[in-house]
Design goal:
The chain is of the alpha/beta class. It is built from seven helices and eight strands; from the N terminus they run E-E-H-E-E-H-E-H-E-H-E-H-E-H-H. The longest helix is centred in the middle third of the chain and has 18 residues, at about 90-105.
Length: about 230
Amino acid sequence: MLTKKLKTMNKNLTEIIFVLDESGSMGSVRSDVIGGFNTFLKDQKEIPGEAVMTLVKFDTDYTKLEEGTLLEKVKELDNELYTPGGLTALLDAVGKTINEVTSRHATLEEDEVPGKTILVVFTDGEENSSQEFKKKADIGKMVKEREDAGWEVLFMGADIDAWGEGSSMGFSKSRGVAKGDMLGNMAKMSYYTANYRNNVDFGAVMNMTEVNETFDMTTEEAKEKLEKLKKK
């Protein structure tokens, strides 16, 4: 784990930011995305500690479903809320999300700012339609600024060169996963998030070894470890 120097924040509060690809190619795994995300949400509600969620979906457009919402009030996904179609405006999704969350945090009293913030970007395709953010280098600067500020940031690519795509956008941690195992991916992401919330010290972030250890384990192993965290 790496430790960052941070200003006064609410050490008991975590913000979970999920940026979820809703482009047309995700249509083949639509039901598993919905089911996997809803299980992820249920799991996080059962983990000790306060948390809020920002949930963004993107295709050609960018849509916020939740913005700093208390976890217990976050709605599940369904076939009306998650409707794959369109292209992949990945840079716009990441850039807008970082800008909007950072701006919102800046308006809060210091003791209201989440002591921990985790940003997860999940996509099965490469950038092809952004209008506002055109350069990966610009996104890279924004990502590094957030990592330097203590955010836990992870890029997940399904059936693509996740390391190449993620690192080109400035993500220091990227992980490739199988698109055909969305339920397993979400279960491991749920454990990773819960582990960050409960076991990572204030001001620290996970390292790539911990990322790989999580996503190399079986789904059942992740679920077992998650259940233990629920009882802490």
